[in-house]
Amino acid sequence: MDVNWFSADYLPWLIIAFPLLSFLLIVLVTNRHVVLSQTVALVGIGIAWLLSMLLFAKTVWLTDKELGHEVFGSQLDWLKLGPQTFRLGVLVDPLTAYMLLMVPLACLLIFIYSLGYMRGDPHNSRFFAYLSLFAGAMLTLVLADNLLLLFIGWEVMGFCSYSLIGFWFHKKSAMQAGVKAFMTTRVADVLMLVGIGYLFLEARTLNFRDILYNEEMLKMLVEKDAVIFGGSVAALVSVLLIIGTIGKSSQFPLHTWLPDAMEGPTPVSAMIHAATMVSAGVYLIVRVFPLLSAGADFHHFDYNTPMYLMGIVGSVTALGAAVLAVGQNDIKRILAYSTISQLGYMVAALGIGAWVAAAFHLVNHAFFKALLFMASGSVIHAMEHGEHHAHEHGHPHEHHEEPDGLVMDYCAPPNDVQRMGGLIHRLPVTAITMAIGGLSLAGFPLVTAGFWSKDEIIAEAWHGMSESPFPLFVLLMLITAAALTAFYTARMWFLTFWGRPRTPAAQYATPGSLRKQWVVWWNRRSWSKDYKLMQEPVSPRDRLSFGQMEFPLVVLAFLAITAGFIGMPADLVGKNPLHGFLAGTLLEYPPAIDFNFAPMLLSMVIALGGLGLGWWVYGRRPVQAGQPDPTQVALGPGIWATLQNRFYIDILYRRYLLQPVERFAERVVIQAIDRETIDGVLETIAETFTWLGEAFKRFNTVVIDGTVDGICAAIGNFAAWFRQVQTGRVQQYLLLVTLALLAISTLFLIQVR
Amino acid sequence: MVITFSGVLTGILLTPVIGALIILLLKKEAKEQARIIAAMSTGIALLLALFVFFGYSVDEANAVNGDGGTYFAFEDHIKWVEAVGISWHLGVDGISAPMVLLTAIAGFTGVLISWGIEDRTREFMAFFLLLVAGVFGVFMAVDLFVLFFFYELAIFPMYFLIVIWGWVQTRQYAAMKLTLYILVGSVFALIGLLALYFKAGEATGVYSFDFVDLHAAAKAGVFDKPFSSAWSAATTAKLWFPIVFLGFGVLAGVWPFHNWSPDGHVAAPTAVSMIHAGVLMKLGAFAALRVGVQLMPEGARVHLPWIVLLTLINVVYGALIAMRQRDFKYVIGFSSVSHMGLVSMGFATMNVTGMTGAGLQMFSHGVMTALFFACVGMVYDRAHTRDIPSLGGFVQKMPWVAVAFIVGGLVSMGMPGLSGFVAEFPIFVGLWDGPNFDPSPSWLTGSFNYYGLIAVIAALGIIVTAAYVLRVVGQVFFGEFNAERFPHISAITIYDKVALAFLVFWLVLLGVYPRLMAPMIESGVRPIVAMLGG
């Protein structure tokens, strides 16, 4: 076979190979040299990014006609078993190309950020090894041309997330969070694997192009009845695949692991929430959408079971998580719930058939969420330093008892937004970039990426609203969630950066800024009294490390604005490049809906309204030290506690799912069956035989031995008694002889008679 | 009678025996020499096993089996006791060739791991080599008398190895339990085998224990005739299949005959546990396949559909018990019960995919569990406790062991890219597919997918597997290290490292490149499935 590795057909293999190669190199060779490991990791992901860009450019240059029909790809046989062959292959079509625009870039920026964030950690090599594996697995998943390879990437990511969430393994809560994430997604993964296996048996292939772009195949799958639960094969497989997504993308009711995943280092959170893990879940359902929607004519508002499932799960998650995000104080946890909520948007969008919009929001969300997470990491870093400096400046060290293990409503002090305030003076770059990310998340009209993608989803729901109750339901849920999103974003940002510092830690939070001038310039124009601290020498290494942390923020802030412009409605700007580009992926060209000003206006009003309310509550009069949070006051202690405890869902799971299984294992399986029944039966048998043996032993000694011994003894006894006859006295003998003679003669006499 | 003798297999079999004899001739103090000789003899056996593995021709096997023959590679066939039809007949087919390799791997690494044994080293190594020889013999025997001979021979050194070098607290009990269970099981299997021997002899006039002859008789339908004229419905195959299958199944840990295994695993010294769980349990599965399914396909068709329920219990039940164990080694012991369930389950699918998966699982689980027991042994030797809650943080002291254990854990939970996935995925696919023919009870056919349901439930058992693996990893290797309780945790030796790396190597190799083994196993499975009616 003539393989040209640099042709577009084989290039994807190289993209996958480089991060995986870095992983191997770090594990096997460089694990003792931190700097070398970091370099290896960075080079690996850097090359993957460059090659991805190359591939992306190649895809873009294809004409519209070629797109979707001519895809890049190559395959190899992996495992031949009986009648079937499992093949592994790569595929680049417009959807993959669009993902390639986001995934390697986001990964690269997270890697750079990690250089700064993880500086000084003794286990840096391990960290970068996992990150490389994580990135490699995600790229595998994105480039896979079949469900099997996709699943391989999917599972490897599950393992990476487990290892990285539990990266600080000496912390019990981190370990527990890792296990929780792994186990929760695992439950979904196994069901998904069952679905993949079933699909394979029916279709005899797992290749995307053979299944998804093959009308006969789809028709066959829709028309054939499934083995269980009624419904068609396509519906059953779809539901199982969606369950996989529900686990991986943290949708209700399997969403509980994501907020706890914050136990990992912040770059990991960015990795999980933006570039990889949760995006993978949505990517899966975007990818297999033709199968999920098979048999449904959603352009005419006829939906099928999988679509209803996605719509309901997605919109419930979007709203529920947005409500929870309002009631959190941990900055990372606010963002975590916001991720869950935004993923709900994408899933719900697919439920109503807004395929392009879902993909669009997926990529935009990745950019601004990576930005928000890394910005929050920089805030937390600064707060940790601030605590330290505050101590140096004579403030007493506050002692916080860390809970043993995961606790629902515990908030680590450096993460607590209530303990921040005024950080814009200390971290100007972070504050501004985070504001941009926040605005994008809230959907600030016209200039942010988040607005355009969210608007497209809402517009699609609006479009179907009058025809069917289902899109109306989705619409209502999503706009309510959008209003809450804008509000909690504003709350988070104002509490963190606005007003006066509420604790010494916030007051002394180290800017860790690259340029002192920047800070000085900013502070000259402001009312900051803590100017002096700025003059503190920052060591060159600190400077570098904060530079490494802020550079990605700036790049992502740029993307959080511009990434949306490629998908503006065609009627507004003449052409929607993204729509035309992605549409080539689908068999049937998705019609762009007519542009309507009403939903766009609605989106604007909702976003501005939420942000405005946030400003009214937190921006107009910033919360002072010691003053309670207005939201907490307004909601009342009962609701607040409910939100802090995440609607008590985790506790319910623990009490009604985990503990019963453990009890079942303990009491029924171990006690009742294994010990009592099986070992019990054996013991009974053993005891029966022992008893029988004992009985036989007794029988042996008493009856058999008794008989035999008795005979012997009787003879002996008789002999002993008879022996007494021989006394040695002659008179006695004479007497006996006389008696004997008498007896004999008597006998004779009787006989004669 | 054709006499062929390639000598390779006999060589593999004799190498450990000769090693054992030489060791017994050594002086009592010559511990190091005993170790070196043991390592050398298992090493030579390993090289020969690799030669057999890579020399096995899949194409030739498929060609011969396709023509209705019975293919064995590297045959050694000479007359032995002609009067009763016993011959020294060794050979490997597609299923047993990987098993021979597995035995060699486990034997070689087992010797390396036992390097630190100071108590009666000479005797230990000699017994260990005899054990390995016995296991080799079962996998290579074509003559079923020879198979039986080695089956019993493998159990005998096991008893002494456990009683003398085992864990003081339970070794008496466990060794006795193990021996009795297996002996009782094998007695039933032996009676079944004799029934086949006489039935085939009556029908063909040639009394022979040779598998090839018995297989020919089975193909001719000799065992499908009523066993006794008194009861015409009970054919030989239907009557004796469950007895033979479950008789050997005792050694494969089929529920409810599994209880000897966790106790035995725990009481045995590390290297013996490795052979024990890694290879010995496969002996049962392999013999059940060879004597049971291959000779009595009609019985398999009737009985495996209910036996699959037992294996399902194995999978879920073993995993649940493993989840609740406090003793590190018992966790692994019960995990073997669970994973061996998947092997029998793969047999019960009675199609090429599922049975090939079962063959892969035998190899994968063998290496994996040997790795597990090696890791447990290394931790226990240093910590002197296996109580999971009181361990913790051992990754800092023993990073090699932690990494190896995690790899093993990932294999056991079926992580793609490692051998566990390659083995388990086909089993589940095969299970969902079900047998290629209609199983005899009518309620199994029709719209209700009986096998599919079992696949789903078994798949849920895999979740529990993940739970107990993560629990052990989290509590033993991660978490806080208790420096007061464990002040002197010495590093593992170079021998240990070599053994761990070698085992991990196979798990990764098979996971990434399953074509190394899958076609070979398939070539062995194909004629069986053909006889089962696929």
Q: Helical content of chain A, roughly?
A: over 70%
Structural class of chain A: mainly alpha
Integer average pLDDT of chain A: 79
- Pick out the low-confidence regions of chain B: none
Structural class of the secondary structure composition of chain B?
Answer: mainly alpha
Total count of helical runs of at least 4 residues of chain B: 20
Oligomer: heterodimer
Q: What percent of residues of chain B are in strands? A: under 5%
Beta-strand proportion of chain A:
under 5%
Gap from first CA to last CA of chain B? 32 Å
Strand order of the largest sheet of chain A: 1-2
Strand count, sense and barrel status of the largest sheet of chain B are:
3 strands, antiparallel
The ordered string of helix (H) and strand (E) elements of chain B is EHHHEEHHHHHEEHHHHHHHHHHHH
Greatest interface by residues involved: A-B, 48 and 52 residues
Task: Characterise the protein shown here.
Chain A is mostly helical. Among the domains of chain A are: 306-361 and 375-396 and 412-644, no CATH class; 652-747. Chain A has helices spanning 11-30, 34-61, 94-117, 124-143, 147-165, 172-203, 208-212, 215-223, 233-248, 257-260, 266-275, 277-287, 289-292, 305-326, 331-351, 355-392, 428-442, 449-465, 469-497, 504-507, 516-524, 531-534, 540-562, 570-573, 577-583, 597-619, 630-644, 649-723, 730-752, and strands at 72-81, 84-92. Chain A has a two-stranded antiparallel ribbon. In chain A, helix 11 (266-275) runs parallel beside helix 12 (277-287). The longest helix of chain A has 75 residues, at 649-723. Chain A is elongated and about 155 Å long. The termini of chain A are far apart. Chain B has 534 residues and is mainly alpha-helical. In chain B, strand 2 and strand 3 (86-92) form a beta hairpin. In chain B, helix 9 runs antiparallel to helix 11 and helix 10 (260-267) packs antiparallel against helix 11 (270-293). The model of chain B has no long low-confidence stretch (mean pLDDT 85).
